[in-house]
Design a protein that fits this description.
18 helices; globular; MFS transporter
Length: 502
């Protein structure tokens, strides 16, 4: 096989700073608006019915267009897609911060999702093609994984600070300096390796089917949360998603230049990573939501105190990613980091099922969060690296997009699924204890905590399933050289960038 290894870019570590900064901006934006939402709702007169759309508009655009964004970054060039995504995201954020009515805010959130769908896969695929040596790749993905995992917690902290001491609009405006610095840095230092683009024509039918299918799936879960799982609208969107995504697979098998080459999915390691990360996102997104409401509504924490309560989780997540995952990735198979990591996070969640009206933060919540952070950091780092490990350079963008798609769709599913479970458990508890209750307000809080605890138990089970998927499907050896076992790139493997070996 000819040696097609590309020389290492001398500015790759400087490039990592700006790639990581952009990733932080995208990830924290998923949570920073949550804490500010009540203030924005009151200020703009957003109805309770339209309130969810501040979150959903972003999720629909982002989740639905990720594959398209990944393919565009392969076609245009990842640096160009990265910079355009940053500039567009900053402009959409400025529009959101300046919003004077509901429509303007919702439109800005949808635009953020559109440009985020271009930016996120471009960032991860740039990392994949810039860092091609084993130890360096482990360190780079360790930093990137820590930021991806901790960004949601950072968003909660910044959201609390801005809402309490400044104004909800700053949860949008804060993205502008992030984007400007990252774009300027990218223009100055990022040099995309030659020959890594995919010049094939865009698969328009694939784009339409994938986008509509993913939007239908995400929107179906959103309707399930508000209308119920058996409502006609909910079932209709789920049915549409199945039909559209099935048609998408058929189209991808037949076209010459597919939006999502099936070789990306048929590799058992990448498929295992996508499924396990999606399941983990279902568990984690729901838990963030419940814990935020528990601390603010039940325990009476301020937005800032709530954000600070998540700091230990961020610290242990960074530790797990950079000190455990990155150090061991080249020494042990990925499944031996992913499986135990997800199980350790599940143990942390088990502790959080013990919450009640006067639970000690130091005795229960703190150790639960720290175990979750350590476990997720350890698991996420090798998973994100393996998602683009051994992939053809021309497919790096779409393979990266699949990581974000699995997490975004998983997060939407988790929020709707676990919210529905919590609401049902809360109602049942309230009804069964109503006759014997002395204080209705106390019973309301007890019912809420019971609902949260029930939903967290479901999250524990889902995270256990994620660990099982990682253990069964991911069979790659340590990421220190050679193509992973079970590589699905077949006869085209000789055209791939050998992302580990020199």
């Amino acid at each position: 096989m000819p040696d097609v290894t590309t020389p290492l870019d001398p500015k790759r570590w400087k490039a990592l700073i700006f790639i990581a900064l952009a990733q932080l901006m995208v990830v924290l934006d998923a949570t920073i608006v949550n804490i500010a939402l009540p203030s924005a709702q009151a200020d703009l007169g957003i109805s309770d019915g339209n309130r969810q759309w501040v979150i959903t508009a972003y999720a629909l655009a982002f989740g639905g267009l990720l594959l398209f964004g990944g393919r565009v970054s392969d076609l245009w060039g990842r640096k160009r897609a990265f910079v355009i995504g940053l500039i567009g995201f900053a402009a959409a954020s400025a529009l959101g911060g300046a919003a004077v009515n509901t429509g303007m805010l919702l439109g800005a959130r949808a635009l953020q999702g559109v440009f985020g769908a271009l930016l996120a896969p471009a960032a991860l695929s740039l990392l994949a093609v810039l860092f091609t040596e084993g130890k360096e790749r482990a360190k780079a993905f360790g930093i990137f994984g820590a930021i991806a995992g901790a960004g949601g917690g950072v968003g909660l902290i910044l959201g609390g600070l801005f809402t309490e001491y400044l104004n909800w609009r700053w949860t949008f405006f804060v993205n502008i300096p992030f984007a400007v610095v990252a774009a300027a840095g990218a223009i100055a230092v990022i040099r995309e390796p030659a020959g890594s683009r995919n010049p094939s024509k865009l698969d328009v039918p694939g784009v339409i089917l994938a986008t509509l299918g993913l939007v239908s799936l995400v929107y179906g879960f959103t309707r399930a949360e508000s209308d119920g799982w058996t409502a006609g609208s909910t079932l209709g969107f789920f049915a549409a998603a199945v039909v559209l995504l099935f048609a998408f697979v058929i189209v991808e098998k037949k076209v010459k230049a597919p939006l999502l080459p099936l070789r990306v999915l048929t590799d058992r390691n990448r498929a295992g990573v996508y499924v396990s990360l999606g399941l983990a996102a279902i568990a984690m997104f729901g838990l963030f939501l419940f814990l935020t409401y528990y601390l603010q509504v039940v325990r009476g924490y301020s937005p800032v105190k709530t954000g600070l309560a998540f700091l230990p989780m961020i610290a242990t997540m960074i530790t797990g990613s950079t000190q455990i995952g990155a150090r061991l990735m080249n020494r042990v198979p990925a499944r031996l980091l992913m499986g135990p990591g997800f199980l350790l996070a599940a143990v942390g969640m088990v502790l959080l099922t013990q919450i009640d009206l006067d639970t000690s933060y130091a005795a229960v919540v703190l150790p639960g969060l720290m175990l979750m952070g350590l476990g997720m950091g350890t698991a996420f780092m090798p998973a994100m690296s393996l998602s683009t490990y051994g992939v053809q350079a021309r497919d790096a963008g779409v393979a990266s997009a699949m990581v974000n798609t699995s997490q975004q769709v998983g997060g939407a599913i988790g929020t709707a699924l676990l919210n529905t479970i919590a609401a049902s458990a809360t109602t049942d508890y309230f009804k069964s204890h109503m006759k014997s209750a002395g204080d209705p307000k106390l019973l309301t809080f007890q019912s809420m905590v019971h609902g949260y605890s029930t939903a967290v138990w479901w999250a524990v089970g889902i995270l256990g399933l994620s660990a099982l998927v990682a253990a069964v499907f991911v069979n790659a050896g340590q990421q220190g050289g050679g193509a992973p076992a079970g590589s699905g790139d077949g006869e085209n493997a000789e055209n791939s960038v050998p992302v580990m070996a020199h």
